[in-house]
Amino acid sequence: MVTKITASPTPSKYAKVLTTKNFKNLIPLKLDAEILNYSNWYNLFPIQIRGCQALEFIQPSASSSTTINPSPPTKEWLSVDSIIQSWIYMTISDQLLERVLKSKSKTAWRRLGISGEDIQG
Asked: Which domain of life is it from (predicted)?
């Protein structure tokens, strides 16, 4: 009898992004230009993204001013980018949402006025 051994799939680098169920609970406020809570939101959001090992979706790489995205983008990359987009959208006011709607994660982040240098480290 021959036993076929199959390798288990390699876990995704973005497993935390792909399995986080209620991101809104991790960011207990909405970014709102009218109540001037930019500093709080700006400090909380990247901490969560860094914890999910996906900081490159909102900040430029060290060697480039753009997000490292595969060419062509993989299904996983597109899924992770969409999830991070939704996290940005659900944690900002309706007024700011109008400014960034339909943007990829990196573009939305930039349109909110946050540069990669702001969140290094």
From this structure: Eukaryota
